[in-house]
Amino acid sequence: MTDSTGTRPAAAEPAAPRPAAAAEKPRGLWGDAWRDLVRRPMFLVSAGIILVLLVMAAFPQLFTSVDPTDQALSRARQEPSAQAWFGYDTQGRDIFARTIHGARASIVVGVLATAATVLIGSVAGLIAGYAGGWVDSLLSRFGEIFLGLPFVLGAIVILTTLNPSTGVPDPVRIIGLVITAIAVLSWPIAMRIMRSAAISARNQDYVRAARALGAGPLRIILRHMLPNCLAPVLVYATIALGGFIGAEATLSFLGLGLQSPVVSWGVMIADSRDYITVAPHLLLFPAAFLVVTVLAFVMLGDAVRDALDPKQK
Predict the structure, then answer these.
(1) What is the rounded distance in angstroms from the CA atom of residue 109 to the CA atom of residue 178?
(2) Ramachandran bin of 92, using left for φ above 0, alpha for ψ from -120 to 50, beta for the remaining angles
(3) Domains in the chain, please, with CATH?
(4) Is the peptide bond before 14 cis (omega within 30 degrees of 0)?
């Protein structure tokens, strides 16, 4: 087709391709998990509670100015009032102040016990899962010895053996022994979880490629297997942290864990056991904080598990 001058018009140049504005940078497992977590009400609620508890443990003076060790027998077992929101205990100490300050010892024990448990179990699980053979069998049988011990019975044996009841107990030493007892009795669970993930990762193509390129066992474990095995252990650690806080309270209630002058929820519950019927507020408030804390960590663990599980997508 020509125009009036007899020349063919030039063909229209094709439009330049537009940049794919909608194309987003691909996210990894952790990026997808975080985006999913912030949309879950259960995660937001549990994370908010845990954040308040952490601030309470780190800066108790923001919540109360009362000395938790200040006592006066004249106000012993007084019920909640405007002067003392949670009342007073058997020694006339402010229960609200002791509950706020008690968060520090309980959370420290839970966090450190979880860290020790996950560290020991993860190292053993990675070695067992990667090596296989007799190494795997030896570590698995060794872990089953500790896994077969009832928790309370094992804790009684460890704490009574390492901490004979002579003299005034050292608070730091008692906290260390409680953390040790919990970690020694709980690490096989973390080992099993990590071992299962390591066995699955060991057979993946990226591990075979790294081995073919001459990477050593340590590099393969740390650079290739560990980042891909952390998700299930992280879920376990989040849930176990709440359980370990409850375990500390159980041991303290039995007189084996933390003891006065340490202020913790377990110690407060132990001190109130003989007065539950005549002064229930002695037990109610520290027990309520303990239950809410354990529930918050369990809810957080459930949310993290659902976010990291591809089957839930």
Answers:
(1) 8
(2) left
(3) 82-312 (1.10.3720.10)
(4) no
